Amino acid sequence: MVGQGLDAHALPRRPSSVAFAGRSNAGKSSAINAITGRRGLARTSKTPGRTQLVNFFELRPGQRLVDLPGYGYAKVSEGIKREWQGTLANYLENRECLRGLMLMMDIRHPFKDFDLQMLEWANHIGLPVHILLTKADKLKNGPAKGTLLQVRATLKKISPAFTAQTFSALQRSGIDEAHAKLDEWFGFLG
Fold first, then answer.
1. Which of the chain's termini has less CB crowding within 10 Å, N or C?
2. Model confidence at 41, in pLDDT bands (50, 70, 90)?
3. Which residues pair with 71 in a beta bridge?
């Protein structure tokens, strides 16, 4: 019935989600706010590790962004860090509606141990990953492009399906490319 003037987006669909993950200081909440265009949707803080629960943000009926607890940097006990890792593992392995993972990495510090573990794990379970190299405004254009090329070369060795881009919430750069990846995962190719 799409041809009779009904909006294809209004048709019932299976729920789908895209998860956002990254180190506690990678700018995950800022990226979510910039991508959605909704300042304050995901709480930002100068203190890394504030996201301690799995938070769901509905974009449209049946489409959610999922803000996962940050990993690696937060000044919390090792027991809490292990609990967060368990939460991440449980969520990523058991969600049939999960379409992809947006992985935040500070462009100045890509591929920390937890990032590599997350990529290997996603590859193992067949989950598509798109890396946002956040805080790209902290580097000049040449070094930022060089880091992006290095990251893409490393990703090819892990999975040719993994992708990456530069991103700056502060300068609002990379938002269109992130939107395109979300549209692909949510099924709005066009």
1. C
2. confident
3. 23
